[in-house]
Amino acid sequence: MTTQRDPRLLYGADIRKRILDDVARDIDRLAKSRRVGRLVSVGIGDIEEIAVYIRGQARAAAVVGLPFDEQHWPADLTQDECKRRLVEMNDDPDVLGVILQRPVPAHINVRSLQSAIHPLKDVEGMNPASIGNIVYNQMALAPCTAAASVEMIRATGMKIGGMEVVVVGHSEIVGKPVAFMLMAEGATVTVCHHMTRSVAAHTRRADVVLVAVGVPGLLTADMVKPGAAVIDIGINQITDADGKSRIVGDADTMAVADVASWTTPVPGGVGPVTVSMLMRNAAVAFEKQIDLGWI
Known about the structure:
Elements lengths: L12 H19 L6 E7 L6 H14 L3 E6 L5 H12 L4 E6 L9 H7 L11 H8 L8 H12 L8 E5 L6 H10 L3 E5 L6 H5 L4 E4 L17 E4 L3 E4 L5 E4 L4 H5 L4 E2 L6 H22 L4
Parallel strand pairs: 1-2, 1-3, 4-5, 4-6, 6-7, 7-10
Antiparallel strand pairs: 8-9
């Protein structure tokens, strides 16, 4: 039995399928002349809470024809040993790309590890060089969630050039990269954060609001301009009155959907597209590695 879709919501499944179909064709074309390397998923310590995300990545890799190697490293592995293993993968032609799963144990500096992954094997787009390239309009290996958010905006049919966009949240993973990506396409972007005096004063004038702060229900209907698009990137686990847990975003989804023209649900909105962008980055990395003679 299929689940009835709410017409007020912008789902990611169709966008995900379109991107994965395109990536599968690219991988098939490239594989005619080169052996396909594997995507290596690195989880350090307890990964039970992210197991569902890793399974989703593995399924997407299978769809596009990429081998997926799930590695689980012990929680007590030292920072230096983790870094040594990652650097080793940089030199391995059989490794196409590396996915560093989060969270990591407290003694691990995740930024340092991410920096150890070569930018052309950093299929998540999280190496500082990859993020820095966005400032210069080089989007080939952009952070996946930020890139997925831009794809969701495109799916509305709205013209990004000239639109007013408000980004609520300024993280290195989403807020900052997506702001630069949208500016590169001609949008006027305002970024709100914990020191912004009135977030609502900004969001009420926006054609598009992107929210990624990790606060359930932060964006309410009275903060949204009628007809706007709301891209909800937040992922929060809450417990209902009956004791059951569920995943919600940062927007009061159904109330916002009564005001906005497009609202992404959580789950089922940006998330599926993020995984497809990971696969797109892998295909881009594959082609760039061929061009450089690595494989």
